[in-house]
Design brief:
about 70 residues, mainly alpha, 3 helices, about 85% helix, about 0% strand, elongated
């Protein structure tokens, strides 16, 4: 049961971070940097990568959390 709660928290946190990253990617500063360098700012990339990793880890814990614990 605790692993499922951790999985839910990671999933929700990951989705929130992805939302921040997508919102930040539409900012003026990111648009200007992307036009010149072809990349987003480090802060935006941290939000996007961190959110994706947290969401995948959360989904993984939700799907395998109950079976991973010995009974």
């Amino acid at each position: 049961m605790p692993l499922r709660i951790i999985g839910i928290v990671l999933l929700v946190g990951g989705v929130i971070l992805l939302g921040f990253g997508l919102n930040a990617s539409d900012s003026v500063a990111d648009s200007v940097k992307e036009n010149f360098t072809g990349r987003y700012t480090d802060k935006t990339m941290t939000y996007l990568i961190g959110g994706a990793v947290a969401a995948v880890a959360g989904i993984g814990l939700l799907l395998t959390g109950r079976r991973a614990l010995p009974r």
